[in-house]
Design a protein that fits this description.
The protein is mainly beta and 78 residues long. Strand 1 and strand 2 form a beta hairpin. The relative contact order is 0.18.
């Protein structure tokens, strides 16, 4: 069974970044904003993705912040 890949938009590199399924992908301050946004946490307090039981799971160890996922819908800019 092939593992679905994970791509995350990185504010640091301003591009989609491919992440391996065998590692936890922390949505930390560096990945999301290049270290600029001080409201974002560092691992292990920030949310993260991991591949568990043949699916991607979003989790957070910081119970003081709620984590949400929203669909991304590209818009046509004319």
């Amino acid at each position: 069974m092939a593992v679905s890949g994970l791509a995350v938009w990185s504010g640091e590199s301003r591009t989609w970044v491919s992440r391996p399924a065998d590692e936890i992908t922390w949505l930390d301050r560096n990945l999301m904003s290049g270290g600029e946004d001080r409201s974002l946490h560092r691992p292990p307090r920030c949310p993260a993705f991991r591949y568990v039981h043949h699916r991607w799971e979003l989790f957070s160890r910081d119970v003081t912040h709620t984590v949400y996922v929203a669909p991304y819908t590209p818009r046509n800019h004319a």
